[in-house]
Each structure stands twice: as structure tokens, then as C-alpha cells.
Specification:
Helix content is 46%, strand content 20%. The chain is of the alpha+beta class. It has one domain (3-49). The longest helix has 16 residues, at 19-34.
């Protein structure tokens, strides 16, 4: 089972079997590209299982 997250502000998308990896990559993307900070729980709420 893979976990996927799509950024609503741009075309960034990440998919991995490891949910923690998705969370880390999304948080890094949000900070580096959009100067936004998200908690792990906020990212987890946006993750889809595919």
C-alpha cells in the first residue's frame, strides 16, 4: 500500500510505501518552495492511500 500527497499550490506530488518518508518530503517541500510550515499531523491529514 502506497501513500501519496499532492501539493495544492503547485504540481509537486510524492508517493512512497513509507508514510514517514512522505511526511518528511512534504514538510521539506512546503518550507523550501512555499515558505510554509506544516506539522506531521497536518500532512498526514492530506495523505491519500493508493
Amino acid at each position: 500500500m502506497a501513500h501519496q500527497y499532492s501539493c495544492s499550490a503547485c504540481e509537486f506530488q510524492v508517493r512512497s510505501e513509507d508514510q514517514d518518508e512522505v511526511i518528511e518530503l512534504v514538510r521539506t517541500h512546503a518550507q523550501d518552495m512555499h515558505d510554509k510550515s506544516f506539522s506531521a499531523d497536518q500532512v498526514r491529514d492530506g495523505i491519500q492511500t493508493v
